[in-house]
UniProtKB/TrEMBL annotation:
PROSITE patterns: CHCH
Protein name per UniProt: CHCH domain-containing protein
Biased composition (Low complexity): 1-16
The organism of origin for this protein: Rhizophlyctis rosea
Ranges where the record places region Disordered: 1-28
Gene Ontology terms: biological process: mitochondrial respiratory chain complex IV assembly
InterPro entries, per database record: Coa4-like
Amino acid sequence: MPVQPQHEQPPQSSPHTPRPPTDEDDPYVARIKRSGCFNQHEALQDCYYVKRDWRACKEEMQAFRACFAKKQQEQQ
């Protein structure tokens, strides 16, 4: 007779169980999300990841800076 696999329950989390850090835990990422410029930030990060040279990502950097400056001006 074949053995039926037992379905294991995932471990229950408790206040003592550490959880992996997330972007929401990072105050830098949270500030960028609140700024409304997260898409520009992600484009800049993606560019750097691919090109490994900030100088090759000038357009993305300018777009991020412009967005951030505009949002800061709107708050004043």
